[in-house]
From TrEMBL, chain A:
<keyword id="KW-0450">Lipoyl</keyword>
<dbReference type="InterPro" id="IPR000089">
    <property type="entry name" value="Biotin_lipoyl"/>
</dbReference>
<dbReference type="GO" id="GO:0019464">
    <property type="term" value="P:glycine decarboxylation via glycine cleavage system"/>
</dbReference>
<comment type="subunit">
    <text>The glycine cleavage system is composed of four proteins: P, T, L and H.</text>
</comment>
<feature type="modified residue" description="N6-lipoyllysine">
    <location>
        <position position="59"/>
    </location>
</feature>
<dbReference type="InterPro" id="IPR002930">
    <property type="entry name" value="GCV_H"/>
</dbReference>
<dbReference type="InterPro" id="IPR011053">
    <property type="entry name" value="Single_hybrid_motif"/>
</dbReference>
<comment type="similarity">
    <text>Belongs to the GcvH family.</text>
</comment>
<dbReference type="GO" id="GO:0009249">
    <property type="term" value="P:protein lipoylation"/>
</dbReference>
Automatic annotation (TrEMBL), chain B:
<protein>
    <recommendedName>
        <fullName>glycine dehydrogenase (aminomethyl-transferring)</fullName>
        <ecNumber>1.4.4.2</ecNumber>
    </recommendedName>
</protein>
<feature type="domain" description="Aminotransferase class V">
    <location>
        <begin position="182"/>
        <end position="302"/>
    </location>
</feature>
<feature type="domain" description="Glycine dehydrogenase C-terminal">
    <location>
        <begin position="381"/>
        <end position="481"/>
    </location>
</feature>
<dbReference type="GO" id="GO:0005829">
    <property type="term" value="C:cytosol"/>
</dbReference>
<keyword id="KW-0663">Pyridoxal phosphate</keyword>
<comment type="function">
    <text>The glycine cleavage system catalyzes the degradation of glycine. The P protein binds the alpha-amino group of glycine through its pyridoxal phosphate cofactor; CO(2) is released and the remaining methylamine moiety is then transferred to the lipoamide cofactor of the H protein.</text>
</comment>
<keyword id="KW-0560">Oxidoreductase</keyword>
<dbReference type="GO" id="GO:0005960">
    <property type="term" value="C:glycine cleavage complex"/>
</dbReference>
<dbReference type="InterPro" id="IPR049316">
    <property type="entry name" value="GDC-P_C"/>
</dbReference>
Length: 123, 522
């Protein structure tokens, strides 16, 4: 399984043709305490770059963009009651949604962990 | 009974971390206030109603038998409750109120006097037009001055404030595009320096929103915007002056390019207060713009009912403006409604509200315009800009001013939290300001700046008042730069210190529940 990052601080783990999407540790630290997360519903068709989810912190509401194209399999049900998971475990239990990738070639346009770390370093 | 028995308030330390020495929890004559449900009891009533004799209920089984749980208070208890709450409020009549982007403007008392004249205050929207000619004249005159000041062609007076006005403008753009068979244009471009309501409005009107980045100097990236124009773009929504407090100098170039590409230009005119008498948006090629009467023309925020956000239109969009509007003919003032518009205004996209707009706000705004005159309105803008620049230049060596090098600011000064000590952010500065007796500035907006502090002093503050604020903010900022930990627990002198904003947002308690009933249900 490999993990990819976008410049908008989303990550996607890819296992076969299934991708799991969330936001990075850096993103959660910038947002502050997260109070509400709106995840996409099963069956929603997403094109790479589409607004897929909304994350609301005490500071601001932000869109989460889909790092790849595909069809949503499920949103993380735990985030409805415990949005704080995104603060605590942004890159594991705080995942946002899973989707079936329609175009795995899109992954080549994303950053790997090392490239993303270097990207964040410059911000 | 004890105060605040339901325990609904967040657990917050008493100021200074010391327990209150009084039995009641009150501190001198600033009283702790219970919820209205916790005052009195259900057997008390403030009115003496006669039992109706002749009426027989036809509700049958539907009649309510249980108590509906309304609070029972006598009249003086009710008056005291709301008066005490009002003392805990903070408003522009109490002191400096530097909320950037909100324009907490002084509300001249002459406006209030005029708005309370019975001929304006006591009329009904369904009164025959022959009986309310004076009120219609006020609407028509205000419309005339708004069109004149903006250099536009017409105005819709009915929208009820900023975002409603934006929707009105975008719906007119949609109607115009559909009328020329270009309803397929589905994209609206919104720069990062625009107000947050702009993308929401475009999406609500059925458009897809695309962001246009800001340049390093805090203005819209004109090249990128022009490069994105094309046959799928319906228009752009630009806030000017923008939300970084800067004037978008390329506005005319942008408008021309948008028009050449077949699109239309919406301008968020919420910040028109910085340029009245200096710039006419009509000269910048704008097709529609809303004006917040509470920001530019000194009507109160939310005073006496809904606000008012008239929308001015270019010649191209005027045929699509919503109904109703007031028209003057030889025999007086008339309301142009659906029944009377006919061929004369057949393109109207519909209407925004049931009646004609917010009469109280119209009277206040017209009073402001007429009492200031052309020279006065121009001076208002100039003084607002001067005051903001005085704050910007007095503090740009203390705080980081990300766009300090982009020339003068408009009506608001923008700082970031970049040079505060590690672990300190804008919130700590804001809380420290409360201890110093100042309402904080707007925080963490606009989003393009890290830890934004947006300060809008408005034109009516004296130099002495600005100097006091500058001294206070400089002192708090220096503490934040030095890493003074006492700032992390400020405010120390407010009745409550740091409330748990996260818990309040995650688990808000929105409805009072009778503690007895709640216990019984468990």
């Amino acid at each position: 399984m490999s993990r990819y990052f976008t410049e908008d601080h989303e990550w996607v783990d890819v296992d076969g043709d299934i991708g799991t999407v969330g936001i990075s540790e850096y993103a959660q630290s910038q947002l502050g305490d997260i109070v509400f997360v709106d995840v996409p519903e099963e069956g929603k068709e997403l094109t790479k770059g589409d607004e897929a989810a909304v994350v609301e912190s005490v500071k601001a509401a932000s869109d989460v963009y889909s790092p790849v194209s595909g069809t949503v399999i499920e949103g993380n049900p735990a985030l409805a009651d415990t949005p704080g998971l995104v603060n605590e475990e942004p890159e594991s239990d705080g995942w946002f949604f899973k989707l079936t990738l329609s175009d795995p070639d899109e992954l080549s346009g994303l950053m790997d962990e090392i490239a993303y770390a270097a990207f964040v370093e410059k911000l | 009974m004890s105060i605040n028995a339901s325990g609904w308030r967040p657990e917050a330390p008493i100021s200074g971390g010391k327990a209150s020495p009084t039995t009641t929890g009150n501190k001198a004559l600033m009283l702790e206030e219970a919820l209205i449900f916790e005052i009195g009891d259900t057997t008390t009533t403030g009115v003496d109603l006669v039992e109706p004799v002749a009426a027989t209920s036809r509700l049958g089984d539907l009649a309510r038998t249980a108590s509906i749980g309304l609070p029972g208070l006598s009249e003086p208890e009710t008056v005291r409750h709301y008066t005490r709450l009002s003392r805990q409020n903070y408003g522009i009549d109490l002191g400096f109120f530097p909320l950037g982007s909100c324009t907490m403007k002084h509300n001249p008392r002459l406006n209030e006097k005029m708005a309370r004249l019975p001929g304006f205050a006591d009329i009904h929207p369904l009164a025959p037009v022959q009986t309310v000619q004076g009120a219609l004249e006020v609407i028509q005159q205000l419309a005339h001055w708004l069109v004149t000041l903006t250099g536009m062609d017409s105005v819709a007076m009915s929208p009820k404030a900023g975002a409603h006005g934006e929707l009105c403008g975008v719906l007119a753009i949609r109607a115009a595009l559909e009328a020329r068979g270009e309803g397929h244009r589905k994209i609206i471009l919104v720069p990062e320096s625009a107000h947050g309501t702009n993308p929401a409005t475009a999406a609500f009107a059925g458009y897809s929103v695309e962001d246009i980045p800001a340049t390093a100097d805090g203005r819209v990236d004109t090249e990128k915007l022009i490069a994105r124009l094309g046959p799928d773009v319906a228009g752009v929504m630009i806030t000017n002056p923008n939300t970084c407090g800067l004037f978008e100098r390329d506005m005319r170039v942008i408008s021309d390019a948008v028009h050449a590409a077949g699109g239309l230009v919406y301008c968020d005119g919420a910040n028109f207060n910085a340029i009245v008498g200096r710039v006419r948006p009509g000269d910048l090629g704008i097709d529609a713009m809303h004006i917040n009467l509470h920001k530019t023309f000194s009507t109160p925020h939310g005073g006496g009912g809904p606000g008012s956000g008239p929308v001015v239109f270019s010649k191209a969009l005027s045929p699509f403006a919503p109904l109703p509007f007031v028209e003057k003919t030889d025999d007086g003032f008339h309301l142009v409604e659906e029944e009377t518009a006919g061929e004369h205004h057949a393109g109207a996209f519909g209407r925004m509200v049931a009646f004609h707009g917010q009469m109280g706000m119209f009277t206040r705004a017209l009073t402001y315009i007429l009492s200031h005159g052309a020279d006065g309105l121009r001076q208002v803008s100039e003084d607002a800009v001067l005051n903001a620049n005085y704050i910007l230049r007095s503090l740009d060596t203390t705080l980081d001013a990300p766009f300090g090098g982009s020339g003068p600011c408009m009506h608001e000064a923008l700082f970031s939290d970049e040079n505060l000590a590690d672990g300190f952010s804008t919130i700590d500065v804001a809380k420290g300001l409360i201890d110093e007796g100042f309402h904080p500035m707007t925080m963490y907006f606009p989003l393009v700046v890290h830890g934004a502090m947006l300060i809008e002093p408005t034109e009516t503050e004296s130099k002495a008042a600005l100097d006091q604020f500058i001294v206070a903010l400089r002192s708090v900022a220096e503490r934040a730069k030095a890493g003074d930990v006492s700032l992390k627990s400020a405010p120390h002198f407010a009745p409550r210190s740091r409330l748990d904003e996260t818990l309040a947002a995650r688990k808000p308690i929105l409805v009072w529940k009778d503690p007895g009933l709640a216990q019984a249900a468990e």
